Amino acid sequence: MVPISDEELEAMLSEPESDRVEFKQAWTDNVAEKVRQAVCAFANDLPGHGRPGVVAIGVADDGDVVGCDVSDQLLTKLGAIKEDGQIVPPPTLTVSRRSLRDKTVALVTVWPADAPPVRYKGRIWVRVGPRRALATQQDERILNERRRHHDRSFDAQPVIGCALDELDRRVFEGVYLPALVARDVLDANDRSYAQKLAACGMVASADDPTPTIAGLLGVGITPRSWIPCAYIQFLRFRGTDETDPVTDAQEIDGTLDAMVRRLDEKLRAHLTVAVDFTGAGVSEARMTPYPPVALQQITRNAVMHRTYEGTNAPVRVNWYDDRIEILSPGGTFGCVTAENFGRPGFSDYRNPLIATIMRTYGFVQRFGVGIATAQKAMRDNGNPQIEFSVERNHVQAVLRRAP
């Protein structure tokens, strides 16, 4: 744990209350309740800052440091917040007496929990900008998913009630397994069918051959029957607005292999190539409104990184006359935040088994470079850079047509 420096604390106090800082002018019984709610909210770290939040006692609502009597008794009361059993699991926090602007204040510094959601008196508190709020159902899903980032991923979870014969053995042994063996990823010798599936994460274990989410998406017979959101919705609008006529609409489902290949075919069908003849037919320059590499990278990222939990929403590909919008359910995950999204060196995997399957099928060559590859292809083709909108519940990419 790296404590907050005086410089960082001064910067936090120079701004209004936010999702990382709360001010209290004095300690009272009424304030004690609100401080516990704030501690719970900072521990949940819904915005995903990955940095501690601070409750500063002795600071007015406008950030003016007024000071307070920071006695040992007060510090003891603040420290007891961690251990009195009202906040579960117990938060990681420190309390301290600090001198700011020649006045004494009490600080409660709260680190984000590794196993959210954290509850105070059974209720989940989160920070929404400068205020505390009770978590919505969607907020709770995000926090649960963040906990599983440190545990077993959702794509490794068994699908209760699903039988082993829902997996296509011919595809697994005839297509997927040989690809793994060829890459020296798996030695399949002297293993039973269940053991091979378990080694690939496609069943819970050799002793419990219940198909997992990844297993159904990798070699399932009818994945969407068990995972309703496992499809891509493609719409081609004749115009620049979603109220314009739809000239092509298709729901693309099946295994990951089938979905990606069918989407590639759909994109190629709509990707008309303009031919500019120059020099009286001596040479020709072919220009495409969108580079195929960029479309592949972004759509495959959308399928690979989306959330398959707690939603029936598909990946959406909306093709307009002037742009293509690709919407992937689920916000950022793990070490990726809205602030570092798309930057080289920042990558994480909500669905590590699904990522492995897509690489085995040859849809992903190198992890962590998809966005950079797509942006370079757009630049080389004369397109504007891809615009990303990173929200709590989704990521949208907008690819604009080349002039």
What does this entry look like structurally?
The chain starts with 5 loop residues before the first helix and ends with a strand. The strands form four sheets. Strands 10-9-13-14-16-15 form a six-stranded mixed sheet, covered by helices on one side. Strands 1-2-5-4 form a four-stranded mixed sheet, with helices on both faces. A four-stranded antiparallel sheet has the order 3-6-7-8. Helix 9 packs antiparallel against helix 10. The protein is α+β, with helices and mostly antiparallel strands and about 400 residues long. It contains twelve helices and 16 strands. It has helices at about 5-15, 30-45, 70-80, 135-150, 170-180, 195-200, 215-220, 225, 255-270, 290-305, 350-360, 370-380; strands spanning about 20-25, 55, 85-90, 90-100, 105-110, 120, 125-130, 130-135, 230-235, 245-255, 275-280, 285, 315-320, 325-330, 385-390, 395-400. It folds into three domains: about 5-150, Methyltransferase, Cobalt-precorrin-4 Transmethylase, Domain 2; about 155-225, no CATH class; about 230-400, Heat Shock Protein 90 (2-Layer Sandwich), CATH 3.30.565.60.
